[in-house]
Fold these 2 entries.
Entry 1:
Amino acid sequence: MKIFDAHCDVLSKLLENPGLDFARGHEGLDVTLERMLASGIRVQNFAVYLPERWSGDFKHVLESVDLFHERILALPQMRFIRTKTDLRLALNEDRIGAMLSLEGVDSLHGNLALLRILYRLGIRTVGITWNRANWAADGVLEARNGGFTAAGMDLIRECNRLGMIMDVSHLSEKGFWELIEASRRPVIASHSNAKSISNRLRNLTDAQIVSLIQTGGVIGITFVPPFVSTEEPVSMDRILLHIDHICALGGKRHIGFGSDFDGIREWIVGLEHAGQYDRLVNLLLKHYREEDVKLFVFGNWFRFYMEHLPEESALDQGAAASSLGS
Ligand SMILES: [Zn+2]
C-alpha cells in the first residue's frame, strides 16, 4: 500500500554527520532509500531542521537544501515534488516523491525575501516554530504561551500570498488560534497527536483538532513514543487510539502520518524505522476498512497537497505568487 509521510529529519542528521549514507547504509538513519522501497513509502516530506546551536543561521538552511539535492534527489528513484504535476508524475513514474519543508523560521530573522527564496527553492511547507520562541511566534514550550508578533503576522500574510503551507506542530496554543483566525488557507499539523490520548504539551487539544478538521487541514500522527502514550513501552496499537479519537471528532478525511523518524531517539516497539511502516499498515488493515486505511496512510495527505501545491504554470511566471495575488 502506498504511504505518504509528512515529516522526517534525515536532512538534519546529514547536516550534522555528512558521513551517513541515505542511498546505501542504515547506520545512524531511520529513513533510507532501501527502507522506503521496502515498506512502500511513495511520498516523503523532508524537513530542514537546524540543531538549536545553528537555528539562526540561514547558511545552514541552504546547506540542508544542497544536501537534499546531492544526497537524496540525485538518486534516480527519487523525484522532487514542487507542483501538482510533480506529485502526479512521481506516482506515475513509480518514483518516490520528495518534498521539502522548513521546521521553524528562526533563520529568516523576519526577512520575507528569504522566505520567498525558499519557496523558489521548492520549500512548500513551513513550521513556524520549534519548541522555543522565535521572531515570529512562541513555541509550545514557552510558559508564557505567547502568540504571534507583528512580524509573525506579516509571515502569515506572505505565506498565504505565496501558497506556502503553514505547519502548527510545535507552535504555542495561543499562536495556533491566532493562525487559524488570520490564515486565509488551511493549515496542517505535520507531526502531532491527540492530547486527550497522551497528555503532552506538544499534542493537540480536541478543540485544536476540530478546528484543523473544519478548516480543511490534515493532522500527521507521529511516532514519538511519549506523544503516542504516557505508558512505556509504547506498542504500535496505541496509535489506533489516536486514529479512533480523531475519527470520533469527525476527522477521518484529515488523518495522515508524520513519523518524525530521524528526529527521535526512542521508538515505538516494532516501528523502529521507515522499513517497518508496512507493519503499521497491516495492523490498520485489521481494524479499519481498506478504503479508510488508504486515506490514513496516503490519501488524505495526497488530496491536501494536490489541492494546495501550485500548478507548474504558476512557477513559470517567475514570481511564486499564486492566484490569490497580493
Ligand atoms: Zn518536530
Entry 2:
Amino acid sequence: MTGSTVRCLEFFSGIGGLHHGVNIAGIGAEVVASFDVNEIANKVYAHNFKKEPSKKTIDRLTTKDIERYQADCWLLSPPCQPYTQGGKMKDMDDPRAKPLLHLIKLLSTLDTKPTYLFLENVKNFEISQSRKELVTQLSALGYEINECLLSPLQFGIPNHRLRYYLTARLRPHTPAGNIDDRTIHTTWPFEKEQAFDVPELADFLEPLNDDDHTFTVPSRYILRLHNFRLGIWIQSYHDQWIITANEEIRDTASLLEFGLRFLTPTEIGRLHAFPMASDSPAPSQEEEAGVPRRFFAPTGLPHLCFPEGVTRQQQYRLLGNSLNCWVVAELLRCVLFK
Ligand SMILES: C[S@@+](CC[C@H](N)C(=O)[O-])C[C@H]1O[C@@H](n2cnc3c(N)ncnc32)[C@H](O)[C@@H]1O
C-alpha cells in the first residue's frame, strides 16, 4: 500500500457508481484508474470525475498494464447479461463474461495482488460457473470472502433491487474451505437484520408541472401490460422505470386514470444514492466506524451530472446499468474495510 491511501482500480466503470460508493464510504480510498469500453459512459464519467477512463477492452489488459498502478483494491461490476434470463443465462459461454474471466486469471499472475476486492452483479450470479471460478481462485490465493444478496430496501431506500455482492480480503493462511458450503448472507447487517426506517418514495421525487407530459407513460404501454402486481415498487420497463401503486390489477385500462409517469433520471439517480447537485446537505448523524448507518442522501462533489449531448434515453440506459452507491458504500465500510 502506498502511504495510507487505498489505491483502487475500477473495472467496468460505467458512470462511476463504484467510485461514488468509495467516496460515500469515506474509507480513505482513491480510484486511481477506471476501465470501460462504452464511450458515452466514459464521457459522463470524465465530466464528473475529471478523469478519463481507459477504453482498452478489459479482456486485453496485461499483467504489466495492471501492475503499473500498484493497486490495493479492485472494484468490479461486470456485465450482468450472462446471468440473466434476458441474456439467456449462457454464463461462461457468453462472450460478455470474458473480461471477468480474464481478470480472474490475471489476478494469479500479479506479483503484488490487491489486498481488497469488491464485486457487484445480478441475482443468479451466485449460482453461475463464473462465480465458482472467481471464488475458487480467490480462495486458492488466500482471500477471505463474504458473499451476499441484498436489496437497497434493507438499507432504508424505497427501491427493491436484489443484487449479489462479494467482498474479498487477502489474508494469508485463510483456509480455502468448500465452495459449495459457503453462506450467502441475505440479511443486513449480516449478523442480525436491522429494520432501517424507509423514507417515503415521495422524498425522492421532483416536483413536475401538471402540464408537463415529458414523463407520462403512454397509454399504449399501459394497455400492453397484463395482470401485474402493483406495489409501492418501481418497475424497470423498456429501460425506463415506472412507479406503481399497491394492489393486483387485472384490468390494466383502469390504470390509465392514475396518470402514471416514468421516474426522471434525477429521481433514479437519487434512488441509486448518487450524490446529486440538487440535494441539500444531509442532516448530521452520529456514526461509528464500521457500524451500519441510517440512509441519508449523499451530497458533495463530485456529483452525478450528465454532460450536454447525452440524451434522456442514454441517461436511462446508463442509470439502469449502474448500481446503488449507498449499498456499495455500506458494504465497503462495514464489511470489506472494517
Ligand atoms: C453493469 S455495467 C457497470 C456499470 C457501473 N458500475 C456504473 O456504475 O455505471 C458493465 C459495464 O461494463 C462495460 N464493459 C463491458 N465489457 C467490457 C470490456 N470488455 N472492457 C471494458 N468494459 C466493458 C460496459 O460498457 C458497462 O459500462
